[in-house]
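seq as requested:
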Amino acid sequence: WFLLSELSFVNQSDRCLQFSCPQRSVSPFYVLLYLCVAAVVLLTVCGNLLIIISVCHFKQLHTPTNMLILSLAVSDFLVGLFVMPFHLSRMIESCWIFGISVCLFYYLISFFVTSISIYNVALIAVDRYFAISNPFLYIEKVSVSKMCIVILSMWIFLMSYNSTLLYFNGTSTGLIMCPEQCLFVLHEVCSLIDLVLVFVVPCSAIILFYALVFVIARKHATAIREINVQSKGSKSMADSMKTERKAAKVLSILVAVFLACLFPYFVCATVSNAIESQSFPNFVILLYLNSTINPMIYALFYPWFRKCIKIIFTLQIFKTVSFPVSP
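struct tokens:
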């Protein structure tokens, strides 16, 4: 389904004839557009790079949940570095100016990082459900090494899947390289398979597990009130419940923002024949801008991330003694 819909308004036989690259003069507005593109790309790359450095450097942040956050930050970093510049440039120029080799790379990496982001968020939902439903069992059974194995397996599977999808779709009918356009069309069967695996399955898991998280969170709130009026020996259980509820709340905001960016494009892709095609690039960039928004969510709701930013920008990170950072 990804990017297929923005091509649906052009017939297979005359795609190259309907697209042309307009001649643009270097006006102040044109320069301003590229400055905005540079600012968005820089914000996306630097924001997610800060998350990557923070989680990798500080051992106190090496937790299973933070490994998922690290994986999401890496995928968002790749979106900002390899996908957003080409897509935003194509929106401004109304044509493709980078050649066929970059075109092939662009579609492969865009398919890959988009599916990685969706599955990362789905794994975060599953992780939060098990953490909040039984925090003590979660601590005992889920380790950083096990979570890294799961994440690595997911990356390998999705890279293999997307490479196979593009290969078996066929370059003769899939990739259409006009003099000034780079277009890729999935076959109907491939598009349906991609829709189910990349959108329906992970998004259903996200909605299901977060619905369960909210139900459990309400039960925990009642249990915490009861524990607080009992012996002090049960206070550790109340603190554990509060910690997991807080983590679930913050990550639910991240997931809600992600779904808000994802669903508009999916809806438009589904009803592509009923709406104007010009609206699709806007929804595609909304999907990509989620990679820019995520670091802002961390900065607003995670005190440890703000501490890490301060340590990094004051260059204290290069000192021998590592500064304590609470997750």
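The first strand starts at residue 175 and ends at 178.
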